[in-house]
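To whoever is covering the structure queue this week,

Two jobs came back overnight. Logging them here so there's a record in the thread.

Job A:
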Amino acid sequence: MSKQAKNGLVPELRFPEFRKRGEWEEVPLDRVVTIHKGKGIAKSDISPNGKLLCIRYGELYTRYGEVIDEVSSRTDVDPSELFLSEAGDVIIPASGETKEDIATASCVLHDGVALGSDLNVLRSDANGPFLSYYINHSKKRAIANVAQGDAVVHLYPHQLNKLTLTIPKPDEQQKIAACLSSLDALLAAEREKLEALRAHKKGLMQQLFPAEGEKVPKRRFPGFGGEWVEKKLGDGLTDHPQYGMNAPATSYAEDLPTYLRITDISEDGRFLSAGKVSVDREASEDEYMKDGDIALARTGASVGKSYKYRKADGRLVYAGFLIRVRPHPKMLDSEYLNQFLSTGTYWKWVNFISARSGQPGINGNEYASMPLPMPPTTKEQKEIAACLSSLDDRIALQDGRVEVLVEHKKGLMQGLFPG
């Protein structure tokens, strides 16, 4: 790193034509932007066929990134009663649940978009996308520090005006914004491929498993026939569902068993090894998961969540809020069961069984009695499982591509903006 870079006013990475230009300029926010507040637009004002595009503050957390090119919501509220965007406006929530969340900036690329009342609108002649990327990277902590409140966090214009910006000249702003925008476009395309694969699998599963009330699926592999039957999960297991070890987690240690908890299972049913922990207790051989075992969450918001053990995850002991089921290899293919546990039929059953007073939960007896549609032969189970698991491999590969790009973007932003 150069001596200049260490002082914080020069980025580590710089395009060749700007390397001799010197330091970025440190300026008060109110010298660069004027801050306005959005108006109106309640949830009830959103209309799918509305004539006016609009953005509400909650959408910044769920739908949009640093640059908003396509607006997804509409309203029929009279434009004269609303605050309309100018191309390049940067919007930041005026309220939110946490101080970290509220430090979220997005640039609206188009004129005439209605901006809701819980939005601060930063309007300036500076490059809007650049400001959005810069604020999200370099000013998140500063914004979080000036925001007020606990249960509900508020961010007012006078608080934002306390900030200072470190910015280059307009042509360098433009170059940085164009670089990051092109990377975002690539990210969006890869995410679209990922969602397309997930949608394809979802549609395929609906055809490979019988619909409710049906005894044969819509699609079948060649060579298989006959009606499916509904059995109980417990009928296809080597033994009754087993509860996990009732012990607290401890810091990971190589000489202690690795502990599998609900929080160590990703949304797509994989072991999150990055934050793995141990349990400070001697475990019997039966308490370790074996190839083909499946762990099911039995309580809380994650009830029904599942994980199929993989040898590549190492030796794992499962915790008390998980229930282990061990499919009988001659009766129930483990991967077939694993795939069924992501179907709409399964989750409909989970929602029905776990809907009780207090905290939702499903016990071992209830899991054992779970209805499970079964083809006439285990060979057909294996065909279905192999087809869907190969799709899972493609989805995991695509998900990995997205993660690589996300990490690349993080590293690039660290280099393109001064520390």
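Job B:
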Amino acid sequence: MNTIAVFGGTGLLGRECVYQALKANYKVIALARDPSKMLIPTGSGGNLADKPLDNPNLTVIKGDVTDQAAVDAVFDMSKDITGVIVSLGGKTKYVGPTMLTDGTANIVKAMKNKGSTKRIAVVTSIGAGDSEKQAPIFFKVLMYTVMKDIFSDKNNQEALFINPSG
């Protein structure tokens, strides 16, 4: 059975990723600052939504993605991690201004060190990277003002993959 590692698995989109991977018979290893937030997603969870997600194929490790040792622990849990989903988020004031970049860099470093995982999917936002021109004007106002720090971090996170050294 193949394994998927999910970072940010307790967020709204992350929960859905974890849930769908389990439904597709994957093993899932998730790193979470607060494992108690690993809940059945609102979207496809139906009347079970927001109840604890308990599945024998799910392992949740308590830790922070900005801690390289915690990220490494995820990859040490299984030799057959075939894919990684990065669904990090949160308000900058709670996670710090560079959590996306630092956390994703830690994930990429662990993947390279382990050598067996080749696929990564990173959830970002309209307006980040080359999609900036596609964002609606009212959203651009938010991006350049209230959300300036988070978009700076998102752009730096994307650069980890787009730059020649990525």
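Note for Job B: The longest strand covers residues 27-32.

Please reply-all if you pick these up so we don't duplicate work.
Q.
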